[in-house]
Amino acid sequence: MARLAQVSTATVSRVLTGAKPVSADLAQRVRDAAAHLDYRPNPAAQVLLSGRSHTVGVVVPDLANPYFAEVLKGATPAAAERGWRTLVADTDEDPEVEYRAATELGRWVDGVMLCSPRMSTLRLRELATKLPALVVVNRLVRHPSVAAVLVDYHQGMTQLCAHLASLGHRRLVYLQGPPHAWSDGQRRRALRTAAGRGLDVVQIPCGSTAPDGHRVAEEALGHKPTAIVAFNDYVALGVLSRLTELGVTVPHDVSVTGFDDIPLSALTPPGLTTVAVPKRTVGRLAWERLATEGAGPSTTATSVPVELAVRGSTAPPGQGRR
Amino acid sequence: MARLAQVSTATVSRVLTGAKPVSADLAQRVRDAAAHLDYRPNPAAQVLLSGRSHTVGVVVPDLANPYFAEVLKGATPAAAERGWRTLVADTDEDPEVEYRAATELGRWVDGVMLCSPRMSTLRLRELATKLPALVVVNRLVRHPSVAAVLVDYHQGMTQLCAHLASLGHRRLVYLQGPPHAWSDGQRRRALRTAAGRGLDVVQIPCGSTAPDGHRVAEEALGHKPTAIVAFNDYVALGVLSRLTELGVTVPHDVSVTGFDDIPLSALTPPGLTTVAVPKRTVGRLAWERLATEGAGPSTTATSVPVELAVRGSTAPPGQGRR
DNA sequence: GTGAAAGCGCTAACAC
DNA sequence: GTGTTAGCGCTTTCAC
After folding, report:
1. Between these two residues, B182 and B66, which has the higher pLDDT value?
2. Which chain A residues are within 8 Å of B48, Cβ to Cβ?
3. How long is the CA A10 to C1' C14 vector, in angstroms?
4. What does each C-alpha distance from A171 to A115, A191, A192, A312, A320 come to in angstroms?
5. Which of A173, B103, B133, B240 is most exposed by smallest CB count within 10 Å?
6. Cβ separation A43–B108 shorter than 8 A
7. How far is the CA of A41 from the C1' of C4 (A)?
8. In whole angstroms, how far apart are CA B190 and each of A37, A79, A262, B70?
9. Rounded mean pLDDT of A223-240?
10. B182: which residues sit within 8 A by CB, 6+ positions away?
11. Which of A196, A167, A194, A143 lies closest to A318 in space, CA to CA?
12. Which helix (H) or strand (E) holds B288?
């Protein structure tokens, strides 16, 4: 390459990085040769020398969950705009895999974006000291070097409860999310507050997928609620399916709500009442927190607002069961 | 590190890689020091030296599509078992982004897994010469250095048609997938054969998502089919939603089929008749083809069988519309 | 069985 | 403005 252009390797580097001025003549020769050979600097050598890979690692509990896929679709293009890559790891909801994936990624990348981590706070703090930079999505971590982007689940659930209460609902069943999910805790905190205001809330363990919702729907019904509040939309879809099988009509016999607002939610008759979360925005913001690392104390968490989306799956109760 | 253990860096390397025998005494000192410092070899340096990153790049058109998320969940653990990483890129169905992503990944990784590529065959061949190794999923490429893993969509669609024909269906509407999708071509090839055997098939452009299916369902109905054959399950779910809105009963008024067998398909009443594709197996096989690169001529494509899954969304036609 | 040293490809510091 | 050189951290000769 340098030989073809008859210049030193340093000159090639200067032309390609634009770090120092090079005479027009040489610069052209270098560019011609580079184009001719389809030459690109070896990334490994660049990383070794600079210690920076311009890559951010993204760790998610489950890529098949549309929520995280969307977060990724927010983060990746935002990063690409500045010439950064994203490297994704799926942990299958396993806290141990999560920790290992983050640690290992940390050796390659300049920063890690940890989405809805299931690991303990202790290990999370450990990670903070090991990784070059860390931003956590959907989990509050009090640590000077950990940035956080938080969706306001508490506010969303509060709005959902207010909506149901205003329709006249008094008895709800809440289908809990995965264990150790911070976002589940936020939702439940809001439910406790709502319960203090006269709403009767039964909670049952469930999960985060449609099969989970399908499985527990009948049990939920056993508690005679007027509304079933699912951890997220995907779970709610499973609930709706099961209710249909059971001959229970929504919202006539029981109301159902979700959370997140995935594409199917608007379509599935009668339309799922949910809380819209700007998922791509979450991804973009998380990337930005990582990119502007050091531009200020990261102790403040970025909060992302949500919006109630009322559709056909909620209605006043009390028409009674058939 | 080497200083702490009072040995040369070469000895450290030999202990850690296990390349050459080292006396028990030294080996223990090295291991202790490594554990104490939580030492790990710098990956960039290893890559620079060896030219191998033990990383495979996976390029998919859309991560939000459960299909590709599942393929990934097949490939990643299989690769991890051998100490390999996967690096994922989402191209948003854009052939240009796809080419760039694969090319750029190729500089980092030891091989690229290109899933359902939308780019032209010409560019695909170009890629083959640029990349260290290439396996293509769901696309037939005749090139000596390109391995292929193909799902037998043709066979699946043939079975689906046979099933519908045996129920007595004579007029179908097929909702086409994304342009340039090889798998769509395979399905259509099977449909043409079926058409030659007396099945009347109307094809209309659609896409690969639930909103796509929702959008075109009414148009499909306009062709007065007794069955609607969707490109995939996700599309079919959109169709089912729209039909419900329109007061059209499945399978009484019209039968509906999907393809792929995603988790929701089994749940959604009345249960979606579809073709089950072993998605994780596809991912695993693709990884294996990449890993055993050079272990033989890659000109033969690996074919993955599929299986018809009959559920409630298909039934004999002819009860007529209400 | 062990250490010293070369060199992977690149960029920054240092001559000229 | 340009070339020469050192050195990023590792593994692999090559000597001993």
Report:
1. B182
2. 42, 44-45, 48
3. 13
4. 32, 12, 13, 19, 13
5. B103
6. yes
7. 30
8. 44, 42, 33, 25
9. 97
10. B116, B117, B138, B139, B140
11. A167
12. helix B279-291
Q: Which amino acid is at A134?
A: L
Cis amide leading into B270 (omega within 30): yes
Between CA B273 and CA B259 the distance in angstroms is 8
Alpha-carbon distance of B315 to B322, in angstroms, equals 16
Question: In this structure, how many other beta carbons lie within 10 angstroms of the beta carbon of residue B277?
Answer: 27
DSSP H/E element including B142: none
| B60, B63, B265: best to mutate for the A interface, most A CBs within 10 A | B63
Cross-chain Cβ contact B244/A269 below 8 Å? yes
Q: Which of A263, A266, A256 is nearest to A235 (CA)?
A: A256
Tokens standing for residue B158: 């043939």
Task: Using the structure block, give the residue that is written with the tokens 């058939």.
Answer: A322
Q: Is the dihedral of CA B154, B159, B160, B162 positive or negative?
A: positive
CB B74 within 8 A of CB B279: yes
Is the sign of the CA dihedral A292, A293, A299, A305 positive or negative?
positive
Confidence bin at B321 (pLDDT 50/70/90): very low
